[in-house]
Protein backbone atom coordinates (compact mmCIF):
# COMPACT_ATOMS: atom_id res chain seq x y z
CA UNK A 1 0.00 0.00 0.00
CA UNK A 2 1.42 3.37 -0.95
CA UNK A 3 1.36 6.22 1.48
CA UNK A 4 -1.99 7.98 1.35
CA UNK A 5 -1.89 11.56 0.09
CA UNK A 6 -4.95 12.38 2.18
CA UNK A 7 -4.04 10.51 5.36
CA UNK A 8 -5.52 11.83 8.55
CA UNK A 9 -3.57 14.57 10.29
CA UNK A 10 -1.31 13.80 13.22
CA UNK A 11 -3.87 14.76 15.79
CA UNK A 12 -7.61 15.01 16.11
CA UNK A 13 -9.22 16.67 13.10
CA UNK A 14 -12.63 16.98 14.71
CA UNK A 15 -12.22 20.40 16.25
CA UNK A 16 -10.46 23.68 15.74
CA UNK A 17 -6.77 23.61 16.54
CA UNK A 18 -7.01 26.21 19.26
CA UNK A 19 -10.11 25.05 21.12
CA UNK A 20 -9.66 24.14 24.79
CA UNK A 21 -10.30 20.68 26.15
CA UNK A 22 -14.03 20.27 26.68
CA UNK A 23 -16.04 18.10 29.04
CA UNK A 24 -16.06 15.17 26.61
CA UNK A 25 -12.26 15.41 26.21
CA UNK A 26 -11.76 15.33 29.97
CA UNK A 27 -14.07 12.31 30.26
CA UNK A 28 -12.08 10.49 27.57
CA UNK A 29 -8.78 11.43 29.21
CA UNK A 30 -9.97 10.53 32.71
CA UNK A 31 -11.38 7.12 31.80
CA UNK A 32 -8.33 6.31 29.68
CA UNK A 33 -5.85 7.33 32.38
CA UNK A 34 -7.77 5.47 35.09
CA UNK A 35 -7.81 2.29 33.03
CA UNK A 36 -4.09 2.69 32.30
CA UNK A 37 -3.29 3.20 35.98
CA UNK A 38 -5.17 0.07 37.02
CA UNK A 39 -3.75 -1.99 34.16
CA UNK A 40 -0.15 -0.98 34.86
CA UNK A 41 -0.76 -1.61 38.57
CA UNK A 42 -1.95 -5.12 37.71
CA UNK A 43 1.21 -5.68 35.67
CA UNK A 44 3.79 -4.46 38.21
CA UNK A 45 2.19 -5.59 41.50
CA UNK A 46 3.66 -9.04 40.83
CA UNK A 47 7.18 -7.74 41.49
CA UNK A 48 6.23 -6.30 44.90
CA UNK A 49 5.22 -9.78 46.10
CA UNK A 50 7.71 -11.86 44.10
CA UNK A 51 9.35 -13.34 47.21
CA UNK A 52 6.04 -14.55 48.68
CA UNK A 53 4.90 -15.92 45.32
CA UNK A 54 8.18 -17.79 44.92
CA UNK A 55 7.73 -19.55 48.26
CA UNK A 56 4.10 -20.46 47.53
CA UNK A 57 4.28 -21.59 43.91
CA UNK A 58 7.46 -23.68 43.93
CA UNK A 59 8.55 -26.71 45.99
CA UNK A 60 9.73 -25.93 49.51
CA UNK A 61 12.84 -28.09 49.00
CA UNK A 62 13.94 -26.06 45.97
CA UNK A 63 17.11 -23.97 46.63
CA UNK A 64 16.35 -20.33 47.32
CA UNK A 65 18.37 -19.06 44.35
CA UNK A 66 16.54 -21.42 42.02
CA UNK A 67 13.15 -20.39 43.40
CA UNK A 68 14.02 -16.72 42.91
CA UNK A 69 15.25 -17.40 39.38
CA UNK A 70 12.06 -19.26 38.49
CA UNK A 71 9.87 -16.50 39.91
CA UNK A 72 11.75 -13.76 38.04
CA UNK A 73 11.53 -15.92 34.92
CA UNK A 74 7.73 -15.92 35.22
CA UNK A 75 7.83 -12.15 35.76
CA UNK A 76 10.01 -11.73 32.66
CA UNK A 77 7.60 -13.84 30.61
CA UNK A 78 5.20 -10.91 30.78
CA UNK A 79 7.73 -8.71 28.99
CA UNK A 80 8.43 -11.34 26.34
CA UNK A 81 4.72 -11.60 25.60
CA UNK A 82 4.36 -7.85 25.06
CA UNK A 83 5.34 -7.77 21.36
CA UNK A 84 2.96 -10.61 20.45
CA UNK A 85 0.00 -9.09 22.25
CA UNK A 86 0.86 -5.61 21.07
CA UNK A 87 1.06 -6.59 17.41
CA UNK A 88 -2.16 -8.62 17.46
CA UNK A 89 -4.19 -6.02 19.36
CA UNK A 90 -2.79 -3.20 17.22
CA UNK A 91 -3.52 -5.09 13.98
CA UNK A 92 -7.19 -5.34 14.83
CA UNK A 93 -7.15 -1.82 16.26
CA UNK A 94 -6.25 -0.54 12.79
CA UNK A 95 -8.93 -2.72 11.19
CA UNK A 96 -11.82 -3.02 13.66
CA UNK A 97 -11.41 0.16 15.67
CA UNK A 98 -9.42 1.72 18.52
CA UNK A 99 -12.21 1.51 21.10
CA UNK A 100 -12.81 -2.26 20.80
CA UNK A 101 -9.14 -3.13 21.27
CA UNK A 102 -8.71 -0.46 23.96
CA UNK A 103 -11.42 -2.20 25.98
CA UNK A 104 -10.13 -5.70 25.20
CA UNK A 105 -6.65 -4.91 26.55
CA UNK A 106 -8.07 -3.99 29.98
CA UNK A 107 -10.19 -7.14 30.03
CA UNK A 108 -7.15 -9.30 29.17
CA UNK A 109 -5.30 -7.75 32.11
CA UNK A 110 -8.11 -7.78 34.68
CA UNK A 111 -9.13 -11.43 34.35
CA UNK A 112 -5.64 -12.99 34.70
CA UNK A 113 -4.89 -10.66 37.65
CA UNK A 114 -8.06 -11.77 39.41
CA UNK A 115 -7.25 -15.42 38.68
CA UNK A 116 -3.73 -15.04 40.14
CA UNK A 117 -5.35 -13.83 43.36
CA UNK A 118 -7.47 -16.99 43.45
CA UNK A 119 -4.94 -19.58 42.26
CA UNK A 120 -4.22 -22.66 44.40
CA UNK A 121 -0.58 -22.88 45.48
CA UNK A 122 2.01 -25.61 44.90
CA UNK A 123 1.03 -27.28 48.16
CA UNK A 124 -2.50 -27.80 46.78
CA UNK A 125 -2.06 -28.73 43.10
CA UNK A 126 1.67 -29.28 42.61
CA UNK A 127 3.38 -28.40 39.34
CA UNK A 128 0.12 -27.10 37.86
CA UNK A 129 0.39 -24.04 40.14
CA UNK A 130 3.48 -22.44 38.53
CA UNK A 131 2.26 -23.44 35.06
CA UNK A 132 -1.04 -21.63 35.59
CA UNK A 133 0.81 -18.66 37.08
CA UNK A 134 3.03 -18.52 33.98
CA UNK A 135 0.01 -18.64 31.68
CA UNK A 136 -1.67 -15.77 33.53
CA UNK A 137 1.53 -13.73 33.38
CA UNK A 138 1.77 -14.26 29.60
CA UNK A 139 -1.80 -13.00 29.18
CA UNK A 140 -0.95 -9.96 31.31
CA UNK A 141 2.06 -9.23 29.10
CA UNK A 142 -0.04 -9.51 25.95
CA UNK A 143 -2.56 -7.07 27.43
CA UNK A 144 -0.03 -4.43 28.48
CA UNK A 145 1.57 -4.66 25.04
CA UNK A 146 -1.66 -3.45 23.50
CA UNK A 147 -2.76 -1.07 26.26
CA UNK A 148 -0.05 1.57 26.24
CA UNK A 149 0.17 2.24 22.48
CA UNK A 150 -3.62 1.91 22.27
CA UNK A 151 -4.17 4.42 25.09
CA UNK A 152 -1.75 6.95 23.59
CA UNK A 153 -3.39 6.74 20.18
CA UNK A 154 -6.92 6.78 21.53
CA UNK A 155 -6.34 9.99 23.48
CA UNK A 156 -4.21 11.62 20.77
CA UNK A 157 -6.88 11.08 18.15
CA UNK A 158 -9.51 12.67 20.39
CA UNK A 159 -7.54 15.70 21.62
CA UNK A 160 -7.53 19.09 19.84
CA UNK A 161 -4.23 19.71 18.12
CA UNK A 162 -3.06 22.52 20.39
CA UNK A 163 -3.69 20.36 23.49
CA UNK A 164 -2.20 17.20 22.01
CA UNK A 165 0.99 17.08 24.12
CA UNK A 166 -0.81 17.88 27.37
CA UNK A 167 -3.40 15.14 26.74
CA UNK A 168 -0.76 12.50 26.05
CA UNK A 169 1.36 13.66 28.99
CA UNK A 170 -1.61 13.48 31.35
CA UNK A 171 -2.44 9.98 30.13
CA UNK A 172 1.18 8.85 30.56
CA UNK A 173 1.19 10.22 34.10
CA UNK A 174 -1.84 8.05 34.83
CA UNK A 175 -0.08 4.99 33.49
CA UNK A 176 3.09 5.62 35.52
CA UNK A 177 0.83 6.24 38.50
CA UNK A 178 0.19 2.49 38.44
CA UNK A 179 3.74 1.98 39.73
CA UNK A 180 3.07 4.34 42.62
CA UNK A 181 -0.25 2.63 43.38
CA UNK A 182 1.45 -0.76 43.50
CA UNK A 183 4.09 0.61 45.86
CA UNK A 184 1.47 2.14 48.16
CA UNK A 185 -0.53 -1.10 48.28
CA UNK A 186 2.65 -3.00 49.12
CA UNK A 187 3.51 -0.62 51.95
CA UNK A 188 -0.06 -0.77 53.30
CA UNK A 189 -0.15 -4.56 53.24
CA UNK A 190 3.20 -4.93 54.99
CA UNK A 191 2.22 -2.44 57.69
CA UNK A 192 -1.25 -3.90 58.26
CA UNK A 193 -0.59 -7.63 58.28
CA UNK A 194 2.13 -9.80 59.75
CA UNK A 195 4.47 -11.70 57.44
CA UNK A 196 2.74 -14.97 58.32
CA UNK A 197 -0.67 -13.49 57.44
CA UNK A 198 0.68 -12.20 54.14
CA UNK A 199 2.16 -15.62 53.39
CA UNK A 200 -1.06 -17.43 54.31
CA UNK A 201 -3.67 -15.32 52.54
CA UNK A 202 -3.16 -11.53 52.50
CA UNK A 203 -0.86 -11.62 49.44
CA UNK A 204 -4.00 -12.36 47.41
CA UNK A 205 -5.61 -9.00 48.26
CA UNK A 206 -3.65 -6.81 45.78
CA UNK A 207 -4.40 -9.18 42.89
CA UNK A 208 -8.09 -9.54 43.70
CA UNK A 209 -8.45 -5.77 44.10
CA UNK A 210 -6.62 -5.20 40.82
CA UNK A 211 -8.80 -7.72 39.00
CA UNK A 212 -12.06 -6.32 40.35
CA UNK A 213 -11.14 -2.69 39.63
CA UNK A 214 -9.92 -3.73 36.19
CA UNK A 215 -13.30 -5.24 35.38
CA UNK A 216 -14.94 -2.03 36.56
CA UNK A 217 -12.65 -0.17 34.17
CA UNK A 218 -13.78 -2.45 31.33
CA UNK A 219 -17.37 -1.44 32.04
CA UNK A 220 -16.49 2.26 32.25
CA UNK A 221 -14.74 2.21 28.88
CA UNK A 222 -18.05 1.34 27.22
CA UNK A 223 -18.88 5.03 27.66
CA UNK A 224 -15.97 6.07 25.44
CA UNK A 225 -16.50 6.82 21.76
CA UNK A 226 -14.52 5.69 18.73
CA UNK A 227 -11.90 8.22 17.63
CA UNK A 228 -12.83 10.71 14.89
CA UNK A 229 -9.79 9.71 12.83
CA UNK A 230 -10.73 6.02 12.72
CA UNK A 231 -14.30 6.94 11.77
CA UNK A 232 -12.88 8.93 8.87
CA UNK A 233 -10.74 5.98 7.81
CA UNK A 234 -13.76 3.70 7.91
CA UNK A 235 -15.71 6.10 5.77
CA UNK A 236 -12.93 6.02 3.15
CA UNK A 237 -12.48 2.25 3.55
CA UNK A 238 -8.76 2.90 4.07
CA UNK A 239 -8.38 0.72 7.14
CA UNK A 240 -8.70 -2.65 5.40
CA UNK A 241 -6.62 -2.27 2.26
CA UNK A 242 -3.60 -4.28 3.32
CA UNK A 243 -2.14 -6.07 6.32
CA UNK A 244 -0.95 -3.10 8.46
CA UNK A 245 2.30 -4.78 9.58
CA UNK A 246 3.29 -5.39 5.96
CA UNK A 247 2.85 -1.69 5.24
CA UNK A 248 4.88 -0.74 8.31
CA UNK A 249 7.84 -2.94 7.41
CA UNK A 250 7.89 -1.69 3.83
CA UNK A 251 7.08 2.00 4.07
CA UNK A 252 7.74 3.16 7.64
CA UNK A 253 11.08 1.74 8.76
CA UNK A 254 12.39 5.20 9.66
CA UNK A 255 9.44 5.79 11.97
CA UNK A 256 10.08 2.38 13.58
CA UNK A 257 13.70 3.41 14.19
CA UNK A 258 12.61 6.69 15.81
CA UNK A 259 10.17 4.94 18.15
CA UNK A 260 12.63 2.12 18.95
CA UNK A 261 15.41 4.54 19.95
CA UNK A 262 13.05 6.63 22.05
CA UNK A 263 11.80 3.43 23.69
CA UNK A 264 15.41 2.68 24.60
CA UNK A 265 15.51 6.05 26.38
CA UNK A 266 12.17 5.42 28.10
CA UNK A 267 12.97 1.88 29.23
CA UNK A 268 16.36 2.98 30.59
CA UNK A 269 14.85 5.88 32.52
CA UNK A 270 12.08 3.77 34.06
CA UNK A 271 14.07 0.60 34.73
CA UNK A 272 17.28 2.21 36.02
CA UNK A 273 16.03 5.33 37.83
CA UNK A 274 12.71 4.04 39.17
CA UNK A 275 12.80 0.25 39.44
CA UNK A 276 16.48 -0.56 40.10
CA UNK A 277 17.55 2.40 42.24
CA UNK A 278 16.00 1.35 45.61
CA UNK A 279 18.04 -1.86 45.73
CA UNK A 280 21.06 0.02 44.31
CA UNK A 281 20.88 2.52 47.20
CA UNK A 282 20.69 -0.26 49.76
CA UNK A 283 23.44 -2.43 48.29
CA UNK A 284 26.03 0.18 47.32
CA UNK A 285 25.42 2.96 49.85
CA UNK A 286 23.87 1.04 52.77
CA UNK A 287 20.82 3.26 52.85
CA UNK A 288 18.02 1.83 54.98
CA UNK A 289 15.27 0.09 52.97
CA UNK A 290 12.55 2.34 54.40
CA UNK A 291 14.50 5.46 53.43
CA UNK A 292 15.23 4.15 49.94
CA UNK A 293 11.57 3.31 49.33
CA UNK A 294 10.44 6.67 50.70
CA UNK A 295 12.77 8.54 48.34
CA UNK A 296 11.63 6.29 45.48
CA UNK A 297 7.97 7.06 46.20
CA UNK A 298 8.67 10.80 46.08
CA UNK A 299 10.56 10.39 42.79
CA UNK A 300 7.64 8.44 41.36
CA UNK A 301 5.32 11.32 42.25
CA UNK A 302 7.58 13.88 40.55
CA UNK A 303 7.86 11.53 37.56
CA UNK A 304 4.07 11.51 37.30
CA UNK A 305 3.96 15.32 37.51
CA UNK A 306 6.79 15.56 34.99
CA UNK A 307 4.89 13.51 32.41
CA UNK A 308 2.14 16.15 32.39
CA UNK A 309 4.58 19.08 32.42
CA UNK A 310 6.74 17.94 29.50
CA UNK A 311 3.70 17.08 27.41
CA UNK A 312 2.21 20.52 28.16
CA UNK A 313 5.53 22.23 27.37
CA UNK A 314 5.67 20.54 23.95
CA UNK A 315 2.40 22.30 23.11
CA UNK A 316 3.90 25.64 24.16
CA UNK A 317 7.49 25.46 22.92
CA UNK A 318 7.39 22.77 20.27
CA UNK A 319 8.73 19.23 20.28
CA UNK A 320 12.38 19.98 19.46
CA UNK A 321 13.08 22.46 22.26
CA UNK A 322 11.14 20.36 24.76
CA UNK A 323 13.18 17.26 23.89
CA UNK A 324 16.39 19.23 24.37
CA UNK A 325 15.31 20.63 27.73
CA UNK A 326 13.71 17.43 29.03
CA UNK A 327 16.30 14.88 28.08
CA UNK A 328 19.24 17.25 28.48
CA UNK A 329 17.94 17.87 32.00
CA UNK A 330 17.67 14.13 32.61
CA UNK A 331 21.34 13.67 31.68
CA UNK A 332 22.46 16.49 33.99
CA UNK A 333 20.29 15.55 36.98
CA UNK A 334 21.29 11.89 36.73
CA UNK A 335 24.81 12.95 37.68
CA UNK A 336 23.45 15.38 40.27
CA UNK A 337 21.65 12.48 41.95
CA UNK A 338 24.16 9.64 41.71
CA UNK A 339 27.29 11.69 42.42
CA UNK A 340 25.80 13.05 45.66
CA UNK A 341 25.02 9.64 47.17
CA UNK A 342 24.54 8.73 49.94
CA UNK A 343 24.14 12.34 51.18
CA UNK A 344 21.66 13.32 53.86
CA UNK A 345 18.04 12.25 53.97
CA UNK A 346 16.94 15.66 52.68
CA UNK A 347 19.48 15.74 49.85
CA UNK A 348 18.64 12.16 48.83
CA UNK A 349 14.93 12.92 48.52
CA UNK A 350 15.53 16.28 46.83
CA UNK A 351 17.95 15.05 44.16
CA UNK A 352 15.97 11.85 43.54
CA UNK A 353 12.80 13.90 43.12
CA UNK A 354 14.60 16.22 40.70
CA UNK A 355 15.84 13.47 38.39
CA UNK A 356 12.40 11.86 38.66
CA UNK A 357 10.82 15.06 37.33
CA UNK A 358 13.10 15.06 34.29
CA UNK A 359 12.48 11.34 33.75
CA UNK A 360 8.89 12.49 33.20
CA UNK A 361 10.07 13.60 29.75
CA UNK A 362 9.43 9.97 28.74
CA UNK A 363 5.96 11.29 27.82
CA UNK A 364 7.66 12.74 24.74
CA UNK A 365 7.91 9.21 23.31
CA UNK A 366 4.16 8.96 22.59
CA UNK A 367 4.06 12.63 21.58
CA UNK A 368 6.56 11.83 18.84
CA UNK A 369 5.57 8.21 18.20
CA UNK A 370 1.88 8.77 17.46
CA UNK A 371 2.71 11.43 14.87
CA UNK A 372 5.46 9.34 13.24
CA UNK A 373 2.94 7.09 11.44
CA UNK A 374 -0.06 7.83 9.22
CA UNK A 375 -3.41 7.14 10.85
CA UNK A 376 -4.29 4.07 8.80
CA UNK A 377 -1.36 2.04 10.23
CA UNK A 378 -0.62 4.14 13.33
CA UNK A 379 -1.69 1.60 15.95
CA UNK A 380 0.28 -1.24 14.36
CA UNK A 381 3.37 0.90 13.73
CA UNK A 382 3.63 2.37 17.22
CA UNK A 383 2.81 -0.90 18.94
CA UNK A 384 5.24 -2.96 16.86
CA UNK A 385 8.20 -0.60 17.26
CA UNK A 386 7.54 0.17 20.93
CA UNK A 387 6.95 -3.38 22.13
CA UNK A 388 9.77 -4.98 20.16
CA UNK A 389 12.22 -2.36 21.43
CA UNK A 390 10.95 -2.62 25.00
CA UNK A 391 11.32 -6.41 24.98
CA UNK A 392 14.98 -6.01 23.94
CA UNK A 393 16.09 -2.95 25.89
CA UNK A 394 13.84 -3.52 28.91
CA UNK A 395 15.24 -7.02 29.25
CA UNK A 396 18.91 -6.24 28.61
CA UNK A 397 19.23 -3.01 30.60
CA UNK A 398 19.12 -4.54 34.14
CA UNK A 399 21.77 -7.12 33.22
CA UNK A 400 23.98 -4.56 31.48
CA UNK A 401 23.82 -2.08 34.36
CA UNK A 402 24.36 -4.82 36.98
CA UNK A 403 27.52 -6.06 35.24
CA UNK A 404 28.79 -2.52 34.62
CA UNK A 405 28.31 -1.67 38.31
CA UNK A 406 30.90 -4.28 39.22
CA UNK A 407 33.53 -2.05 37.58
CA UNK A 408 32.04 1.40 38.16
CA UNK A 409 29.54 2.27 40.88
CA UNK A 410 28.45 5.25 38.77
CA UNK A 411 27.32 3.00 35.91
CA UNK A 412 23.62 3.95 36.33
CA UNK A 413 24.50 7.65 36.00
CA UNK A 414 26.58 7.09 32.87
CA UNK A 415 23.91 4.95 31.23
CA UNK A 416 21.00 7.28 32.01
CA UNK A 417 23.05 10.33 30.95
CA UNK A 418 23.97 8.63 27.66
CA UNK A 419 20.28 8.08 26.96
CA UNK A 420 19.60 11.73 27.76
CA UNK A 421 22.22 12.79 25.23
CA UNK A 422 20.65 10.43 22.67
CA UNK A 423 17.30 12.13 23.30
CA UNK A 424 18.83 15.56 22.72
CA UNK A 425 20.38 14.40 19.44
CA UNK A 426 17.05 12.94 18.31
CA UNK A 427 15.51 16.39 18.69
CA UNK A 428 17.22 17.26 15.40
CA UNK A 429 15.70 14.28 13.53
CA UNK A 430 13.04 15.83 11.25
CA UNK A 431 10.58 12.94 11.61
CA UNK A 432 10.79 13.18 15.41
CA UNK A 433 10.00 16.90 15.37
CA UNK A 434 7.51 17.23 12.55
CA UNK A 435 5.90 13.81 12.33
CA UNK A 436 4.85 11.91 9.23
CA UNK A 437 4.05 14.06 6.21
CA UNK A 438 1.87 12.91 3.32
CA UNK A 439 3.69 12.70 0.00
CA UNK A 440 2.55 15.23 -2.52
CA UNK A 441 1.00 13.87 -5.69
Describe this protein's structure.
By secondary structure, the protein is mainly α. It has one domain: Growth Hormone, Chain: A (Up-down Bundle), CATH 1.20.1250. Helix content is 78%, strand content 0%. The longest helix has 33 residues. It is globular. It starts with 22 loop residues before the first helix and ends in a 7-residue tail after the last helix.
SSE layout:
Layout: H1 23-48, H2 50-57, H3 64-80, H4 82-95, H5 98-118, H6 122-125, H7 128-156, H8 164-192, H9 195-202, H10 204-220, H11 228-236, H12 244-251, H13 253-285, H14 289-317, H15 319-338, H16 345-359, H17 364-371, H18 378-405, H19 411-426, H20 430-434
Helix pairs in contact: 1-5, 1-7, 1-8, 1-10, 2-3, 3-7, 4-5, 4-7, 4-18, 5-7, 5-10, 7-8, 7-18, 8-14, 13-14, 13-17, 13-18, 13-19, 14-15, 14-16, 15-16, 15-19
Helix content: over 70%
Please trace the helix and strand order, writing H or E for each element. HHHHHHHHHHHHHHHHHHHH
Oligomer: single chain
| CA gyration radius, whole angstroms | 21 Å
**Poorly predicted segments:** 1-16
The beta-strand count equals 0
Work out the count of structural domains.
1
What is the global morphology? globular
What's the CATH C level? Mainly Alpha
Overall mean confidence score, pLDDT: 80
Q: Main sheet?
A: none
Look at the structure and name the CATH superfamily.
Answer: MFS general substrate transporter like domains
What is the rounded distance between the termini?
15 Å
- How much of the sequence lies in strands comes to under 5%
